[in-house]
């Protein structure tokens, strides 16, 4: 795994503000790693340190086992989109990519190829100043893909994209990961990563909150709960409670049951002659899982203030 | 990643923003247009009836001459017994000259109160040695060859120098002369320089005068003097007294190259002042526009070695501004010279300058170098400050304010100002030697001093910019 990103004990201060505080994680090839945290959590700072733009105060961030500044032709090893606005408005889209290509000795034909890939081929000769935010995001993604790098980093790539664009970028990220690339994608909304990310690195206040796979996180958040739909709620609650379950009313005709398997619930209700229309294991969304994580950290914070 | 790649990248950046290409074209147009304006506003009242030397250059040729016609080879020996200290560069000596027409070919040897024995020929110094009056002087003609000697006792002679004067006819005037240059008085105030020269009168006594060869029997006395000056200053004060081999001469005026300080090449390149107002901001913005939009992050992600990035920017910018600047300077030179001739800058006082003259070529190239270095200073300032407006304001202020201040303060202060600010770079556009006689303060320092001052500024700014770029977070 020579081509992945490795962040180790990273610390970065700006004046008296600690932006990143002892952060460690890795990004593996062939996966989309979501990098999640509220605004100001240190995501962009971490990415800037990985790219060698800002210097770490302690620890390190390596790409392919080396610090970024040691890379000879960095665009062919890491592609990054940090800020879609970082384009001179007077420059044509193709010229913006062309100077980048020249700087790393990348053949000029790659410019046309990546513009095609992100759907900007028809506006290649238009000035970036006239682009919508969505078009600029696509241009930034084209720039990241220019050197055909095995590692890609995108900072909030979904920002400003229309629904069609969001669907497009999810497909693109999945496809890039399927080609074996390591992909790090940051977001302050966990929901944006639903169905895209394989792995999650969640940070808050510059520190790691959790580093896990999406499936583990969802399983933990689902917690063996089963949803039951029935028109005879009162009877069903009594029957299930007597059978040893913990029951909560979640909707007009829905109950959430824990401590009983689906099979046990079905047997108990059938035995008691209570009809039910649906019996399904609860699937938590990433958003719920994230809320649960952050709620814990919020509660923890409150407990500290009022012991 | 090689430096060649970086150069290509920066060149692509520069050529792909239309507004920047427009600015480059505007810089060239402004430079030429403003030069034309400066040339059209110029005028001169320098004396038109100036003497012209054998090489066509304007010369001063004013002195008192007591002489005899000498045919063929021969020599003159005198003992200068006494010389009044009327001016350090006053001369008392002997001369052979093609008649008494001002500007005619000659060779001479004289002592000066400044303490030198000075041989001249055709208005230029041939040799100089230490020595004062009293002193023996000898001048010998052999065909076109003239040699001079001095001696402290009249028997042991030291050769001072020798020249070949092809323009000397078979019969030439040989004799004693006294000259004494005017005392220059210079006043600089609020944008004007007034220069006055107060004439001085030299006096010297010659003894043991002897001419060998077939010379006319009688002495003739002449005052060579510029016609215009004669009217202003009254009749010539030259005179001769004595006899029996002893003469006392009084004379006024100077002998030597008399180029006016006004430099038509410099006037014709003045438009770089307008060109720099466009090029300096361009140099600044070539760096700061990247900071303004965060594009510098993209640049440094593509090329993590930051000093080479700044170097590539500087090389690309220097190449482009030098090319544009040179084209504009050449155009300005060719367009303004006819205009200046129409405004009175005519030969012989103002010989038509040619690019074949090294000093003219140097001034035209100097204008391009001046624009290039100022643009690089802007680029460096942009790298240091990272914001366009303050960087532009700093460089433009450092360049223009000393220009204006320097033209109203006393000469010494003006010279200092030119030696410590980028404004001194204007001196690179001067074809003639440095002079205190003009209102333009940068005329006071030579072109190489101007190059050194502005070059230092540009190098320091770029070095500081590179150092800061490497040191700080983007």
Structural features, described:
Chain A is of the alpha/beta class and 307 residues long. Chain A is 35% helix and 26% strand. In chain A, helix 2 packs across helix 3, helix 3 (109-117) packs across helix 4 and helix 6 crosses helix 9 (286-305). Chain B folds into two domains: 3-46 and 262-471, no CATH class; 52-257, Jelly Rolls (Sandwich), CATH 2.60.120. Chain B has eleven helices and 18 strands. Chain B has helices spanning 3-15, 18-41, 227-233, 264-268, 272-292, 295-302, 306-342, 358-385, 388-406, 411-420, 447-471, and strands at 51-52, 58-61, 63-83, 91-97, 106-111, 116-121, 124-130, 135-142, 145-151, 158-164, 171-179, 183-189, 192-198, 202-215, 220-224, 239-243, 246-251, 255-257. In chain B, strand 4 (91-97) and strand 5 form a beta hairpin. Classes of the chains: A alpha/beta (307), B alpha+beta (474). At the A-B interface, helix 2 of A face helix 1, helix 2 and helix 6 of B.
Short structural summary:
The complex is a heterodimer of chains A (307) and B (474). Chain A has 307 residues and is of the alpha/beta class.
Task: Please write out the topology.
The complex is a heterodimer of chains A (307) and B (474).
Chain A: E1 5-14, E2 17-27, E3 32-36, H1 43-50, E4 58-63, E5 66-67, E6 78-81, H2 93-103, H3 109-117, H4 133-145, E7 151-155, H5 163-178, E8 182-187, E9 199-204, E10 207-213, H6 214-222, E11 226-229, H7 233-242, E12 246-251, E13 254-258, H8 262-272, E14 278-281, H9 286-305
Parallel strand pairs in A: 3-8, 3-9, 6-7, 7-8
Antiparallel strand pairs in A: 1-2, 1-4, 4-5, 9-10, 11-13, 11-14, 12-13
Helix pairs in contact in A: 2-3, 3-4, 6-9
Chain B: H1 3-15, H2 18-41, E1 51-52, E2 58-61, E3 63-83, E4 91-97, E5 106-111, E6 116-121, E7 124-130, E8 135-142, E9 145-151, E10 158-164, E11 171-179, E12 183-189, E13 192-198, E14 202-215, E15 220-224, H3 227-233, E16 239-243, E17 246-251, E18 255-257, H4 264-268, H5 272-292, H6 295-302, H7 306-342, H8 358-385, H9 388-406, H10 411-420, H11 447-471
Antiparallel strand pairs in B: 1-2, 2-18, 3-8, 3-11, 3-14, 3-15, 4-5, 4-11, 5-6, 6-7, 8-9, 9-10, 12-13, 14-17, 16-17
Helix pairs in contact in B: 1-7, 2-5, 2-7, 5-6, 5-7, 5-8, 5-9, 7-8, 7-11, 8-9, 8-11, 9-10
